[in-house]
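Action item from last meeting closed. Structure (360 res):
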């Protein structure tokens, strides 16, 4: 199979979908890797390393897309990339279609076969390709929030760990999944006062045990949010509905009830966000202020640490991509139900139940 890896062109996106070692794995099995020049530059991978691994380095994106049977990416196709989609192409990348009707319609119109990393799901319900990026996003949410709480950026000037004579900041995390638990780990490690909300009592018990009772937990509800928001310095939205749109948990009045200068980091923005006031931001323009609250809703947050994020992501995606290349997509999906859950659209039809429900 011919596998294409173009340069990511989404604003601020500096990850790459394949490392040189990944290219070597494909080449050793008789596959052809077409990679665009400088695709791995910001991750520390030179073109010469891909050549040494057996890949062909091409100058133009069109050459990569047109020459490939399967394109591996990190983020959804944007800009000119949508013109390269075609009905005999397999696209394997993060898609997050439930929050993007325009992209969904584009994929359907092109009749491309598109699999989303975020919907590949193991029998136990875990999401092996999304989880490493959720780890990164959870950690970065707290790191970035410390910067956004700076008074010079409109924040209320709270130091999350606290200092002598000044109490720690109060952090509320909505969602106790992979992103939420990593946000909790960093915030708690810094010394902040952390409360985690989740709709699963079992998850809340797990979180309390993991953090030895030093993190507060509560069942997620509108009433609990209304109680916590007025005393929250930092709110992290980390809710995930598998394949579906994130639930709208915070109305505009609820956001307005937060202290002036408090911060909302909405990790769930890829799936639409949890707040009525959330809208996508970028690494170049990471925040805005609305209702007196500093909002940061970066849709590709892990791109801030491209090398770490790429190494983690490609370690998970490589076995699935190799399986498709070795066996063909149909056989690979027949033999692996988790990969079959990754299929979002094919032949002009919506396939994934979560995505279908989002557009019902």
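Sequence:
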């Amino acid at each position: 199979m011919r596998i294409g890896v173009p340069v990511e062109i989404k604003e601020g996106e500096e990850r790459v979908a394949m490392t040189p070692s990944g290219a070597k794995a494909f080449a050793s099995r008789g596959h052809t890797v077409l990679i665009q020049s400088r695709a791995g530059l910001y991750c520390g991978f030179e073109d010469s390393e891909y050549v040494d691994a057996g890949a062909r380095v091409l100058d133009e994106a069109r050459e990569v897309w047109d020459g490939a049977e399967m394109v591996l990416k990190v983020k959804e196709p944007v800009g000119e990339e949508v013109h390269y989609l075609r009905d005999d192409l397999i696209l394997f990348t993060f898609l997050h279609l439930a929050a993007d009707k325009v992209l969904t319609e584009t994929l359907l119109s092109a009749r491309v076969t598109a699999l989303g990393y975020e919907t590949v799901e193991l029998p136990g319900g875990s999401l092996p390709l999304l989880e490493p990026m959720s780890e990164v996003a959870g950690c970065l949410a707290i790191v970035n929030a410390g910067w956004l709480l700076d008074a010079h950026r409109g924040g209320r000037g709270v130091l999350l760990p606290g200092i002598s004579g000044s109490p720690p900041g109060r952090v509320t995390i909505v969602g106790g999944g992979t992103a939420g638990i990593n946000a909790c780990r960093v915030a708690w490690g810094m010394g902040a006062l952390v409360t985690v909300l989740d709709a699963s009592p079992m998850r809340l018990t797990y979180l309390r045990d993991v953090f030895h009772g030093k993190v507060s937990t509560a069942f997620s509800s509108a009433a609990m949010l209304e109680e916590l928001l007025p005393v929250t310095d930092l709110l992290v939205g980390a809710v995930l509905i598998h394949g579906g749109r994130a639930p709208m948990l915070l109305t505009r009045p609820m956001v307005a009830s937060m202290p002036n200068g408090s911060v909302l980091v909405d990790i769930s923005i890829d799936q639409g966000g949890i707040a009525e006031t959330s809208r996508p931001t970028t690494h170049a323009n990471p925040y805005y202020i609305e209702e007196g609250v500093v909002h940061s809703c970066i849709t590709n947050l892990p791109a801030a640490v491209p090398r770490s994020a790429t190494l983690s992501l490609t370690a998970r995606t490589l076995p699935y991509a190799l399986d498709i290349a070795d066996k063909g997509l149909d056989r690979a999906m027949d033999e692996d139900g988790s990969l079959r859950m990754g299929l979002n659209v094919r032949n002009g039809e919506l396939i994934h139940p979560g995505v279908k429900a989002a557009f019902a």
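Note appended to the action item: The mean pLDDT is 96.
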